[in-house]
Amino acid sequence: MARIVVVKRVLPPSLSILTRFLTAFIGFLIAVYITSVATGLGFSETLRTAFESFLDLNVFRYISVFLPIALGLAIAFNANLWNLGAEGQLVMGAVGATYIALFTPLGKMDYIAPIASLAFAAIIGLLWALIPSVMRLYLGVNEAVTTLLMNYIAYYFSSYLVKGPWRGRGVYGYTTTDMIPDASKLPVVPGYSFSWYIVVTAFVLVAIVYLLLYKTRFGISLRALSSSIAAVELAGISSKRLALAAFCISGAFAGFVGGAEILVYHRKLVEGSIVGSGMGFTSIMVAWLGGLNPIGIVISSYYTAALYRLSFALQIGSAAIGDALAKSIIGTLFAATIVAEFVSKYKIVVR
Amino acid sequence: MNRTFIRVVDLYKRFGDVVALDGVTLDIFFNEILVVLGENGSGKSTLAKVLYGVYVPDRGKIIVDGSEARFSSPFDAKKKGFVMISQRPQLIDDLSILENIALFIGEPPSGTLAKRIEDFLKRFDIGIDVHKKVFSISYTEKQFIELAKALLINPRLLIVDEAATYLPQDLKTKFFEILRRFVSDNRAVIYITHKIPEALEIGNRFVVLRRGKVARVFNGAANPSELRHAMFGTEEYLKLVSRQLLQRLSKDSKNVLSVDKLVVLDDYGKTAVDGLSIDVRAGEIVSIVGVAGNGEKELGEAIAGLRKASSGSVKIDGFDVTKSPPSERTRKGLVYIPEDPFKEGTAVTLSIIENMRMYARERLSQDVVLDAIKKLGIVPENPAIQVSKLSGGNVQKVSISRLLLTMPKVVVAHNPTRMLDERSRALVLDILQRFSLSGGGVLLITEDVDEAVQISDKVAVMVDGRIAKLFEGGNLESFRSEIEKAMVHG
Ligand SMILES: Nc1ncnc2c1ncn2[C@@H]1O[C@H](COP(=O)(O)OP(=O)(O)O)[C@@H](O)[C@H]1O
Ligand SMILES: [Mg+2]
Question: Which residues surround ligand 2, an ion (CB under 5 A)?
Fold first, then answer.
């Protein structure tokens, strides 16, 4: 009788990377197929549009979101800390940036305004992440659950602000704040919806995170946390402080992105679910697809950004279809990520 | 006349740049216990894993009963009647003993099976409820469960990879009896070890591996000196372990470690350390010897901060650290070498150099790293290799390397040499002696009476969580039989 057996294996790094690329490519074809069925466009037509979205400069609009968040998450995940709250940290960052831009004198000062807004956004994101990490480290509350739930608190909090105390005077029926002052806005590339400032910052973060994780005692110990907390402690490094720092960095990165979304894209605070629009969740997957490695994450965020573009480039018919499409593409990506993880660690043999 | 059961022909296996088996040829006869000896990293476990189908060799053949056998997994090997027990128990923690065994032998976990297992264990005075989850049983119990599991499928070849090496002597003797009885009837045992005395105790024939090659085969009698030469090419290292007391203790050197009336509970809430006090002065080596299970593990962990003390205190270099986490104790000048380098000593997913960078407070130059690798004889010498890829003894050496990379006031080491071959053991004992000569204090918690009497100023015997007897001064080696008696009888 033939039996199917799953066997553990260790692939050399080159093959492991190849496997990831292949799975990503297959995931891509499936995504294109789903899209073509859903939109009624021919497969080849859809494929062409898909390739175009890889070459479209507007991928940077999404890369500037996914890349920094996924980098931050990689720091936490490398230490075995389950920060599933990037979405909420992003939204709170957006709230923080809006506060500085709209409600403090700093918001009207050239140069200072965007820097102050982004810095404050990062701080708020950090503090939002600090709550679940303190609960985990000092009260033993599972951080995966708290971070996940806190996303919704952030959603409701920002929705409350835009419907209540922060609601703009000139916005008629809309639930948003007023526009932020011009001094706070970051210039976008004409015809596109991203800012080179943020893109450049994101790539600087890649280098910083890489050096941090692989070249410093801090980063090495952080990565050691996932195999042995005792080994880290016995080396004289406080595992609690490490975990706290990892969590805070990931929160700060997500908060920064939230701030950037306000200064570059929305230019006013909107309801939480619109600011985040699930991109904080998607970033979790981007981090894993990139193998929790900063360089890998550059590639995975580019790939994910391109497919995101695709789902919007093909938006015909109602917004509901576009949204459903985006979700199914993300779902496909998610499945591809899991398959890639599996295939690079196990093989299936029939005997 | 010896009849050949298995022929291993020209086996070759490499991992990346490391050649683990380099043309190994050997015969295994019926009715024998063949000992495979070799230093840490010589390829013993790799040979075992090839025979058990875990690894597929790059080249070479395994001939069983005259025809070639090809294994692509342990499943195939099991069908041929080959079973392996290794140093680290391969049981599933969340399942019961019964379920684990049932899973392995492919029977339902029935009452009759439970009875068979219990009968088997009772023969060795191990009365244990087979419905217990595996995570709640001790290492020794696990190894006997492994043995029961292996024997219940009635194998023809039993491969024992250092599985008995870490058992207490009385149980080891029982383990050996089972092996001797097992081989009587057209079967064979391959017994893998790095310990020469153990090899001589159990083996009928001896194969010495060195750097992946068969260095020498002893058909019949062997003596320790010849085995050492085959294993290491030298016996010189024996000279390293001699007493170097040299009046290194000035009378008024201060305590670097004070343990006062310490009470510590074990995992089940029973008192494991029962009001124990001991001091270690700068420049002194104090040993605590005891049979495993008398609270030494809990004592070490409580000093390191890995386990809470119920009462009493621990002071390092004068600072009370009883309530401090391990990291703070390390910063105060403690280095703790845990017994299990895989779980607590190293981060196995990181490379050798990354682990060393974690231990050291300052940035390490490549030279310092290479020097530590040389001094401890870590193989392979490549610092970028992942620790999980090293053989067990070498993982332990990585864990010990922190002694060379930091400047502690006191070292507490729990069974630091038991995973090490004789030469590596000598290197490590030498490092401990040098450390004490330079003014550091050492607390050596060990089951190995030899090393305790060889390098210590004082030997304390621990029984039932207390110091039963303290030996000091003069030639401790002369107290050896008294020490051994105290370990058993208190
Ligand atoms: N899975 C692996 N990947 C890489 N190297 C390995 C692996 N297993 C063993 N080695 C290397 O092969 C050599 C022999 O190891 P091993 O057979 O475990 O030695 P030992 O004689 O101590 O049991 C060592 O240098 C070890 O680092
Ligand atoms: Mg081994």
Answer: B 45, 391
B431 in Cβ contact with B375 (< 8 Å): yes
Are B220 and B272 in a shared domain? no
Chain B: closest CA distance from residue A201 (Å): 28
B295 Cβ below 6 A of ligand 1: no
Q: Whose CA is nearest to atom 7 of ligand 1?
A: B389
Tell me which residue has its CA closest to atom 26 in ligand 1.
B390
Residue B328 included in any domain: yes
Does residue B181 lie in a domain region?
A: yes
| Start and end residues for every CATH 1.10.3470 domain found in chain A | 55-305
pLDDT digits over B187-239, tens only?
999 999 999 999 999 999 999 999 999 999 999 889 999 999 999 998 888 88
Q: What is the pLDDT of residue B372?
A: 96
Residue B271 CB contacts under 8 Å (≥ 6 apart), including other chains: B263, B264, B265, B310, B465
Stretch among A173-177, A215-219, B317-321 having the lowest mean pLDDT: A173-177
Chain A / chain B CB contacts < 8 angstroms: 84
pLDDT tens for each residue of B408-429: 999 999 999 999 999 999 999 9
Give yes or no for residue B202 CB within 6 A of ligand 1: no
Q: How confident is the model at residue B256 (pLDDT cuts 50, 70, 90)?
A: very high
Distance of CA B31 to CAs A167, B175, B183, B187, B305, Å? 88, 17, 5, 5, 49
Give the residue, by CA position, lying nearest to ligand 1 atom 14.
B43
Return the pLDDT at A1.
45
Residues of A in contact with B330 (CB under 8 A): 233-236
Nearest CB among A236, A349, A351 relative to B327 is that of A236
Q: Is A299 helix (H, G, I), strand (E, B) or coil?
A: helix
Which of A228, A238, A349 is facing B327, going by the closest CB pair? A238
Q: Is the CB of B380 under 6 A from ligand 1?
A: yes
Q: Which domain holds residue B140?
A: 4-237
Chain A positions touching B361 (Cβ under 8 A) are: 236
Q: Which fold has domain A55-305?
A: ABC transporter involved in vitamin B12 uptake, BtuC (1.10.3470)
**A235 C-alpha vs ligand 1 centroid, how far in Å?**
25
How far from A160 is each of A99, A308, B46, CA to CA, in Å?
A: 14, 28, 64
